[in-house]
């Protein structure tokens, strides 16, 4: 009888160990997938921040180019701040604005940080749970105003679109060439011949100046187009797609690890209980033999 009881206890202990091992393995796999997701989000954030200056500069160039045709500017800064990544900027600013919250995040143990993939997620949790009740204010992210004038994204008409051209090196060189070089040179040539600057000469100066300015303006537009063409939207889209694909895989891996862990744990407990029941079923209670013939003819058997 004691052998069967020991066997039952051993079976239960084995089932418990199997279940515990499955749960720990599941937790380890789930944490690995969660760490992978956090790394992907950080990697995307780093890429996005590195491309931000180029994106905004290109947006300014596109607004300036659009202003040459009377098209109002778009606010590329606000567009950059939209969506979940812009929200990350807001919560990062919340941590910076509240040093005590940032210090609390740093003090948290690894286990305490487990529910949050990033410091920004903890900041959002803190504001929703404590900060709002404490009267803490959410920071406002200033992404700047669009270049080119007019109302952002509302089709406002830009003011004096040629102002940028005349203030640029292209316009300055064209102006100096017309007034500072051509006019004295032509006038001096006429004076050397004992003639005053005639209407034909003035017309020639005007035509030359207009041609010089027109060529300079073409170069100016080409320069703006080159800057506008540097827009890294494709790189941002690619980085976002990579985060979406691999992030979804990581989330799926977390769910799969938890499901497999629960299933294995229940199987371990089930096997242990089943083994214990089988061991206990072999015990003969009350000293009664299972076969009446053995009781009637003990010597024979």
Shape: elongated
Helix and strand element order: HHHHHHHHHHH
Low-confidence stretches: 148-158, 178-184
The N- and C-terminal alpha carbons lie at a distance of: 21 Å
The total of helices stands at 11
From the alpha-carbon coordinates, what is the Rg to the nearest angstrom?
Answer: 40 Å
Category from helices, strands and their pairing? mainly alpha
- Average residue-wise pLDDT: 74
**Helix residue percentage:** over 70%
Quick one: biggest sheet? Answer: none
SS strand fraction: under 5%
Please report the total strand number as a whole number.
0
Set out the fold topology:
Layout: H1 2-67, H2 76-80, H3 83-97, H4 99-107, H5 110-113, H6 119-131, H7 163-167, H8 169-192, H9 199-228, H10 233-280, H11 292-296
Helix pairs in contact: 1-9, 1-10, 3-6, 8-9
Structure characterization notes:
The protein is mostly helical and 301 residues long. Among the domains are: 32-74 and 160-267, no CATH class; 82-140, no CATH class. Helix content is 74%, strand content 0%. It is built from 11 helices and no strands. The chain has helices at 2-67, 76-80, 83-97, 99-107, 110-113, 119-131, 163-167, 169-192, 199-228, 233-280, 292-296. The protein is elongated and about 135 Å long. The two termini are 21 Å apart. The model is unreliable at 148-158 and 178-184 (pLDDT under 50).
């Amino acid at each position: 009888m004691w052998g069967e009881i020991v066997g039952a206890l051993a079976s239960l202990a084995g089932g418990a160990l199997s279940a515990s091992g499955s749960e720990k393995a599941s937790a380890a796999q789930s944490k690995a997938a969660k760490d992978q997701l956090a790394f992907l989000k950080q990697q995307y954030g780093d890429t996005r921040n590195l491309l931000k200056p180029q994106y905004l500069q290109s947006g300014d160039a596109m607004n300036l180019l659009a202003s040459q045709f009377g098209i109002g500017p778009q606010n590329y800064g606000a567009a950059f701040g939209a969506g979940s990544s812009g929200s990350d900027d807001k919560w990062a600013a919340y941590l910076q604005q509240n040093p005590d919250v940032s210090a609390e995040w740093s003090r948290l143990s690894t286990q305490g940080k487990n529910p949050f993939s990033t410091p920004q997620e903890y900041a959002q949790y803190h504001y929703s749970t404590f900060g709002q009740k404490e009267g803490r204010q959410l920071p406002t992210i200033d992404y700047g105003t669009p270049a080119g004038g007019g109302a952002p994204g509302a089709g406002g008409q830009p003011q004096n679109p040629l102002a940028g051209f005349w203030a640029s090196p292209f316009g300055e060189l064209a102006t100096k060439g017309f007034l500072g070089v051509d006019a004295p040179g032509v006038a001096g040539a006429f004076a050397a011949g004992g003639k005053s600057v005639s209407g034909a000469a003035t017309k020639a100066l005007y035509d030359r100046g207009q041609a010089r300015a027109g060529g300079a303006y073409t170069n100016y537009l080409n320069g703006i187009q080159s800057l506008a063409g540097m827009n890294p939207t494709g790189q941002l889209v690619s980085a976002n797609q990579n985060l979406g694909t691999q992030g979804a895989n990581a989330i799926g891996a977390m769910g799969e690890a938890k499901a497999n862990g629960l299933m294995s744990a229940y199987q371990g407990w089930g096997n242990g209980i089943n083994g214990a029941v089988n061991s206990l079923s072999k015990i003969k209670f009350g000293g009664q033999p299972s076969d009446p013939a053995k009781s009637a003819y003990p010597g024979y058997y």
